[in-house]
Structures are given as structure tokens and as C-alpha cells.
Amino acid sequence: MKYPIITLLLSIFSFGQVQKEQLNLMPWPKEIKVNSGNFILNKDFKININGASSDRVYKAASKFLRRLDGRTGTFFNQGFITQNNEFPGANFQISVKNVASLNLNRDESYQLSVSEDKINLTANTDIGAIYGLETLLQLLQNNSKTYYFPLISINDNPRFKWRGLMIDAARRFQPIEVIKRNLDAMAAVKMNVFHWHLVDDQGWRIEMKNLKQLHEKASDGLYYTQEEIKNVVKYASDLGIMVVPEIDVPGHASAILTAFPEIGSTPNFKYSVERNAGIFTPTLDPSNPKTYTILEKIFDEVCPLFPSDIFHIGGDENEGKEWDANPKIQEFKKSKNLKTNHDLQTYFTMKLVPMLKKHHKKLMGWEEIMTNEMSKEAIIHAWKGPNEGKPAGESLAQAAKNGYKTVLSNGFYIDLVLGVENHYLTEPINEKFNLNKSEIENILGGEATMWSELASPLTIDSRIWPRTAAIAERLWSDVSVKDVKDMKRRLSSVSVRLEELGITHLRNKGVILRNISNNQNTSAVEEFSKICEPLKLYSRNKGGTEYQMYSPLTLFADACTPDASDAVLFNDLVNEFTNNKTNETVKSQILEFLKKWKNNHSELVKLNENAPIIGSFLPLSKSLNDISTQLIYKLENNSNYNPELANKLWIECNSKEYADVELGIAESLKKLITFI
Amino acid sequence: MKYPIITLLLSIFSFGQVQKEQLNLMPWPKEIKVNSGNFILNKDFKININGASSDRVYKAASKFLRRLDGRTGTFFNQGFITQNNEFPGANFQISVKNVASLNLNRDESYQLSVSEDKINLTANTDIGAIYGLETLLQLLQNNSKTYYFPLISINDNPRFKWRGLMIDAARRFQPIEVIKRNLDAMAAVKMNVFHWHLVDDQGWRIEMKNLKQLHEKASDGLYYTQEEIKNVVKYASDLGIMVVPEIDVPGHASAILTAFPEIGSTPNFKYSVERNAGIFTPTLDPSNPKTYTILEKIFDEVCPLFPSDIFHIGGDENEGKEWDANPKIQEFKKSKNLKTNHDLQTYFTMKLVPMLKKHHKKLMGWEEIMTNEMSKEAIIHAWKGPNEGKPAGESLAQAAKNGYKTVLSNGFYIDLVLGVENHYLTEPINEKFNLNKSEIENILGGEATMWSELASPLTIDSRIWPRTAAIAERLWSDVSVKDVKDMKRRLSSVSVRLEELGITHLRNKGVILRNISNNQNTSAVEEFSKICEPLKLYSRNKGGTEYQMYSPLTLFADACTPDASDAVLFNDLVNEFTNNKTNETVKSQILEFLKKWKNNHSELVKLNENAPIIGSFLPLSKSLNDISTQLIYKLENNSNYNPELANKLWIECNSKEYADVELGIAESLKKLITFI
């Protein structure tokens, strides 16, 4: 009976040597060295913290234990960590030199080394240490019986200071739990600025003690209390995240003007909270002294809620229509020697600088605030690009050259629902603009922007994640880290791990599918959703009036996401096949897909009998069914193939008329018709 | 070309006549009459409210529109309803006579009538009206193209006044969003009392302004702020739900005594927050005047947070061990002429009555508070039953006979994870106790109790729902409504609809399955979970020390639920087959299941190669695989069938040793071995 036991032991303790290329780290660290051997995880795993006493690290380390426990089912004995040096002999030692202040100049570096019986994490600041914990979690490996960490040494530090995510809680209100889980997810990929878009045409979202009209008249009861805001700011701080609030002025002002119509640019106009999407005319009156009185009161109340030294005042998309139509404002412009509405807006914005300075805050605004007269202390948020008729990266380069600190969002507009590689390959320092060293230093980093016209609490996570992790890597890792295929491999691991932080991008898809399947089996709709993507580049919700901001988003397009999984697979296959038409394996895989979609269509037809919403995308599935029939003929050299019909069917497959989705495989179908 | 158009119209507008028996109403209404014809839903659907102006109805009606919209994708124009009589011509008219006060004597009745072009909902109170809205939502029907309501008239009213759900937020903290979504779900099945268990050995969960030690020392930072509590109370009130808080004294006191050891019954003992599950000794000292000083301060601060006129003081499971061990307390007992510890506890509890009365609150406690000296104004919460060595329903009957108002929880302990029929068939008015009319009137109703030793925010919904909807029906509907099969049919519809309120019982299962499958395909684990149920009757977490209260619950047992879907189907099949062994259809369905489980086992083996947690239940799947082989032999009359081996394998299939689950089909497997 000796042999079986030895074999068992060998099988338990046989670990494949992990290669650096197999690790699921994201963002990829600066320096990383993998050694042979492993640190095996068991119930005695224990953490000891020493150096600077930091609540931030205590909390992160306690949560680290629970997350590791949840993944492995180890049930560690160690509970809440609340003090330094409790277990000097622990096999995981964390050393922190200083407690960081939450500003852009904090040290975020850390060093992590794993040997067979000891893990050491050292950092200059507690924020560096909490990043090291995230890296360690991503290093977890397993065989069939055991969990372990590979022996490794990592030295890490970010490339950019500003790695942000903006969430628009104004258009569609996003409750506190949405914000908190997204903060957790941000920290998991080492992002450090949460930009909270709190005010827009569609709502004012801050409880006001002195100007109650704002939340009472312009929020539909959907706002954050001041206690909740402080609570979020503290929660973010514990994760090393700075919160930058935004109150968008002087345009996007329907909500503010619903509460205070007297400071609007159209006299005696009955402003109301906007229900649709788009760019609207309501604008504050820059010639009215009361505008500034009210704004000062607002800043006096809102600034103290946010310890960050930066305040975002919006400033975008003011087309000046109300100003043009009001002779009094035009007269005022003339009297101040201001040539354009743009100059008038700068006059307005410059009045806000001292209001913010009083609270030790720098002004930040969207790129429209950048004119000759704008203070060089302002931070320019670059957002325009090819969609707005500007070359990509130009505004950012311009701001940097003009001597402004600047943050890039063009290229990181995740609400465009483009494929992840579009964002991943957006490089903030664009060589074509020939920036010098000090100009490059003006580029603080970048920020993913999640506008919420088409994102509700149910769906917003699936619009942000996992894609934003790729943006986080662009902003943290070396410029040379840009292999899209490898990024996608790592992203798939990050995606599932985000669930432990409460991110709902995967789970809520099932909710929508069950809803539209009317409590029938969802597998056919799910299959179809794997090749459908929501309409891109703001082509959904035409004219901004198909849905209102209070309309639920529970339809097929809301269950679909960019980077649809089967579409990605099929497109790869078709590319391979067009490169090598003799590859029979690939050909048979393509045929399998085509047959699956045919079969799936008949399932959808049956499902539709008791689920009307299925009918909204059934014509698209029908077109796919029909073109699949043709392509099967073609690939199987069946004489029934009808190229003319195939071309006609392809046009139908390329339709964007059904259920606000498009087939993510349309181009590949075209290739199969054309190039095979 | 005329005919096709007519056919099309006919097919669009052909509606099957709905029978009363097909409706998915739960709880089933008092009187219901279905007429032929339908009210067809379209974009012009509009609500008008008249009568008493009620914020509660405005909110419920606005949300009704969004929920109906989310199900149908109709995109109604009507947004937020904020005033009476806005659209006098609307096709849905709601009339409310009075705004209800939140007490047990409110009128909860409503009348609903649907004709082809008009819906009328009338109610004496706004709470009745919001119940009517829930009924209407449950009435929604569809064919393949259209949504509609059947023509119907309903007259409804509950049987019991108290239809409660208790959530234990003390053992495992349950964040605000967990509470809010469960309140929404309660309202959807017309439940009206939320009993919030806020204090126990494992934690104090209320922010205190005057006795900060309580939340600072005894909550691990996991507590509700007073603002959050007020917010929940308001949220509940909008749903017609009364909130009854519980501070459990004098036992279950580890948390209180962590903050105030000086009022504990063991002098100089260093009390600490309990991390395990079980019954613990820490108890307040009833002989110490400071105990009452502190309790009075607590009630003075906590009572005003809860407008309800009832306050639950726990009082359960004080075994008096600390009292017995303390001579000073025994002396005190003697000096007060109190014979038993039970009498001493009554002395203690009676001191709380005036403290609560000061705040206009009646005292409620678990049944242990019922002694001869207990005030008849107290409400007795009956919880003991066969599990505790008492006949079912006896304590409730006793309390009613003793002249106490009383609420039943025995039979409604949903944390026992029993099948839903166990709770559904628990009838509060048990004939065997021969209660007279006034005694019956003492029975206020019942309450489902969700203790949280084994329920985290991730899993708690799946322990509460959908089962609690069956309890809600028991407490609302006529005693004659008790067809288990029909209840299960309706429950399946309620289950999916709970998702629109944020209930996570279905979606979070996927989260756990993805976690334990280690980002591989989850279908094999999901299959297996359809026949596995978590260990019942508190047999999981042996000794209360396998897990701690901070341990995550992310393993296979946490993904499993009672009433496992395939187990229910298979058990029905086997019952049918044992009744009629010549039924070949049933036999082949049974064979299909057995073959599926064999195939699934090999999938699990493969999955386990890269997912250690799968290994924890693999032996159970192996036993099922092996017994399936034998049973296939048996059913196919194959001579390889080995009855001895089958019996041996069955013992293994009946094991409760793996991964804290049991096979929900074990009894059926036994029947196949024995009776076929």
C-alpha cells in the first residue's frame, strides 16, 4: 500500500512551472521575474503589517484575506486586521513607510517578492501596498488540488499619475452601491481618480442644505445625501482613489435652471428637467450677478464634501444659442469687450476660479474652456476627436503645448460601445505632435468616460467592465505593453474576478435574458446575444427621444455587449480561413457555427410564441439563418449556392434596424461570400 | 392581397381566453372573476390618480409604469407621477380614499376591475392601492405579439394582519441595498412587517451618537448610520411596510458587553464579539442598576428612529449559565423572591416595559418572555417547535390562550433550507388546540425568519426567495388555498419577476458557479447543482466553528438551494413510475436523467483538473455516476445489475459528508432500487 500513497502525494504536489507569459496580471507590472517553485496556500496563511499604521492597509489586507478565501475555500483563521505587528512570524509581511495623502503626487510604487515560505510586500506608501495586494491576488495559481503563488519578484510603478473613470450619475441616477462596487473594481486595476458627473440637464444629484430647491425640484427624488457623498469619498480614499466632482456649467444647465430659472439666459422661460438625450440650449446667464451669487453658494456647500484639490466645472457643449438670442447678454458681451461667445464663456469661467480657490481647489474643465484668457492653473480635459471633426489627440497635445496640465478622454469614451482594442491602443503621448519633455509632463494621464444616456444601474457595469481594465493598463503599464491578443487573454480572467467585488456585468445579462424570454429557457437568446452587439457610436436611441431617461433598459440590446464572445471567435476563424483556404479544421469550425445559428433560429421562433420581445430581433436571426444556408452550400460545394441571393441576404444581415443591435460577424459573412 | 392581411391581423389579435386557474397570482386573492376579452397594452397606456393625495401611491404608480415597461418594452410616455388628477381621461384610474397610518389596524383591501378600455383600482387606503398595483402586474398576459390584461374583477383583503419577514443583520451584516431590495420583494407579495434583527452576539449594527462604544467596539465597522436607518424606514413606509427593530437582551449579549463589560453577568470578564455560530453565555446582569441605565439610554436613542409602535427585545435562549455562576446575582434573585432564572428574566424584561412605553411602544419578545408575571400587553413571538422538543403550534396557541397577541414563526424558519411545502402547509390556526374566537383573534399572523449564520449578502436572497412568497400567501389568502402543485407553478413565475426588483437569487448563483469553476464553462457544475441541496436543519457548519461570521460563503453549497429544480422533476417521475411501472414514457425520462448524470460526472472530472473546489463534491457525483450505471442496468433489464452493489452505492449517495450538500434525489434512488 505504499505506492498509491506516494503517487497521491506526487499528484497533489506536482505543480507546472508557471511562465511569465501565462500570468493573468493586469495592468502588467514594470519589472517582473519568475523563479521556479511555489508558495503553497493553506489555512495557516497569515498577514502581518508593519511600519506606518494605516487604516487603509488594514482594511485592504482584511478584504484581501476574504477575497482569497472566497476563491479558494480555505477558511483562513485570521479575521479583521486592526493593528500593526500582531503576528511578527506571519508568512506574509507587509511593510509600509508612509501614509499617502490623496493627491496626484503620491508615490504608488511597490515591491513584491514571493519565496517558498515567505511573501514580502514593501511600499513607500500605504497606497502602493494596496496595489501590491491586488497584484498578489492576480498571481494566484492552482493545479487540481492546491492553490499557490509562483515564486516571483515584482517592482512596479505607474506610467501616468491620472488613471480615471468618470461615471455620469446625472442623466441616469446611479445609486451608491453602483458607485461603490465600481470604486472597488477601479482599485482592482489600480485606477486612482473617480470623476463623478453629478449635474447635467437631466438632473441635480446632490442634497443641498442651503439651496434645497436644487435637489427638491431637479432630481425626481434621485439624489445623494451629503452623508452618502462623504461616505463614498471615504470609501474611495480607503482604496487610494481621489474623487473629483463635476458640476457642469454654464451649459447643460436645465436642472439648475429648473430650480433657479431667474439665472437662465432666456428671460421668463419655464425651464424643466430634461427627459431626452442630446445637446440642449439651457445656459446660465453670465451677465447676471445672481448667477455668481448662486454658484458661490453652491461651491461653498459642495466643495467641503470633497477633499480633493481639483473641481471639475464641465464647460462643454455650450453652443451659445440662448446667449445669441438675448440682446441683454449680447450688450453685456460688448461692454466687456468680449468678441465671441467663447470669450464670454471664459469670462464666466474665470469668475469661478477664485470661488474654488477659496476652498483650495483648482479648476478643471472640458477642453472648450481652453482659450487665451484661461488661467494656466486650470486642467484641460481633452475629449474631442474624429467623431467631433478633430484629429485624435490634437486637443490634448494643444493643451500640453499651451502649458496646461491635461487629461485625455478622447479614445476612452467607453459609452461608444466599440471593441476594447480601440481604447487599448489609444496612446496618450502621440509622437506626431512632437511634444518636448516638459510638454509631455503636462499630460497627467487619461480617463474612461461612462455617459449614462444608455446605461442604467442594471446595465452600467457591463458597459464599463471588463473593457476599462484595458484602459487602466494603457495608463499604468509601459508603452511597449500593447499586444491585443495577450491583453484579451488576461482580460477574460480579470472579467470573472471582478464579480467578487460585486460587479454585475456577467450576472445581470441573465436577468435581462430571463425577462425577454418571459420565464422560458434562455439558451437560444443567449446564443444569439453572443454574436450581437449594441449599436455603436451613438447610433442607438435616434434623436435622443426614443427612450426617456426614466425608461428602463431591459431589452436585447441591453443584454448584448461589445466584444461579443462568439463574434470574436468566428471573426478569427474567418480571418484564418481567408488566409489559408485549405485549412479543413477551420472550415469545419466555421460550418459548425453556421449550422448552430440555423438551429438557433428555429429555437428563437418557438420562444417567440410566448415572448413578444423576441420578435424584435427575429428578422435579423432569420437573415442569418438564410445566409447560413447559402454559406453552407458554398463551403460544401453544393450547387444550390446562389451568390446573388447571398449578397442580398448579406445586406439584410448588415441591417441596424432591429432591436438596436448589429451582427458582430457581418464583415466576416461578407468575406465568406466574397473571398472564398 | 386581402386575405394575407386579414390573416395577419387575426393572428396578431387572437388571444387565448385566460382561465382563472392559469393566472400567476400570489398571494391568491379573496374573490376573483375572469370575464372574456382583454385590455390591450400600448404606448398610450396612462395612469390617473384621484382621491387622497398620497406620495406612497405616486411612487408606487410611477414604479409600476417602469416595471411594466421593463417587461414589455413599450416605452410609455408617462414619466413620474407627482400629483392627483393629472390625466382625468387616462385609461387606468386609481382612486384612494385615505392615507393609511402604518399600524396593524390599517385597511389593506382593494378592488380591481379591468374592462376592455378601462382599468379601475379603488381602495380605502393608499396601501390597499399599492397592493392592487402588484396584483395587476401579476395579471399581465401575452401572446406572441401583444401584451394585455384579462378582463377581470377582483375583491381582495388579507386574512392576517401580520405578514412579516425577519432579516438577521447582526450575525452577518447585510448592507442597505440588501435590505431595500428585500423590502421591494416583500411588497410585491403583500407582506407588511419587516423585523430587523440588529443586535446579537456577533455584532451591534446601529450607529449610536451617545453610546459610541457600541458601534465603535462591537461592529467591525459594519453598522447602519442613523440616517441610513431613517432612510430604510421611509423606504419601507412607502411600500406599506412597518419596521420592527430588535435589540436582543438579556442573552445574545456578547456585542453589547464588548462595549460595556461592566454590565455583564461575569465580573471582570473580557467579553468580545463572537465569531462563531451557536448559543453563547454572555448575558446582561439583571441585578446591576447600570444595566438599566444603559438600556434606557439605548432605547432613548434607538426608539425615535422607528415610528412603529412595537419594539422587539429578543429575550430568547438565555440559558442563565452566567447567572448561576454569579453568587451576587443569585442573592439578588432570592432578595426579590424570584424562584427561577426564568422569573429573574421576567423581572428584567418588565423593567423594559416603561422604557419603551415612554416612547409609545409595546414590547415584543420571543416566546421565552412569556411567564405568569409578563405584562399582557407584550406580544409573544412563537418560534419553538418539534426541533426544540415542542409540538408544532403549541407555543402560539398557549400565548393566544393566555391572552397575548402573538405571531408565529415556527414553521416559517426559512434558514432551515427545507422544501417550500413545509412552510406553505404551516397553518397558524391549528384546529387541534381548539381556540375560541377571541383567542383566534389574538393570532396576529406569522413571520418568516432569516437567520444569517449561513447567509451573506451574496446568498441571502436565494435563501429567502422565492420561498417566502409561499409564506406570504399562507398569511394573506384563505385557508382553503393550499394546493402545493399549483403554488409551485405560480411560484416559478413570481421567482423570475422578483429579479426586476433587484432580488439576486437567480443571478448570484452564476457568480458562485463561475468562481468555483475557475473561469471555465460552468454547465457541468450547474447541472449537478440542480439535484443538490444545502444540508438542512442546521446540520451545516458543525459545532458552529467550521466557518466564522467573516468567512465568505462562495462554495458549492452556497450555489445550491432547497427545492432543487431537477430533483423536483426527478422525484415526481419516480413517484409516477412506482405507481405505474408500465409507463414507458416515464421510464425513458428517468433513464434520460440517469444517463445525463453519468455524462455530467465525466465533465466534472475534467473541470476539476483546473478547479480544486470541484473536488469537494466529486465523490458524491462519482457515487451518483456509479448508481446510475446500476439503475440503467436494472431499468433496461441488463443482467449486469448488482442489487447488493446498488444498495451499497445508495448509502454513498445518501452521504452528507461532501461539500455541505446532499442529493435531493436520494429517496427516489432508493425507491428505484427497492420498489421497481
TrEMBL record, chains A, B:
Signal peptide: none annotated. Keywords: Glycosidase, Hydrolase. The keyword Nucleus does not apply. SUPFAM superfamilies: (Trans)glycosidases, beta-N-acetylhexosaminidase-like domain. Residues 160-478 form the Glycoside hydrolase family 20 catalytic domain. Gene3D superfamilies: Chitobiase/beta-hexosaminidase domain 2-like, Glycosidases. The keyword Plastid does not apply. Residues 23-156 form the Beta-hexosaminidase bacterial type N-terminal domain. PANTHER family: BETA-HEXOSAMINIDASE, BETA-HEXOSAMINIDASE A. Belongs to the glycosyl hydrolase 20 family. This is Beta-N-acetylhexosaminidase.
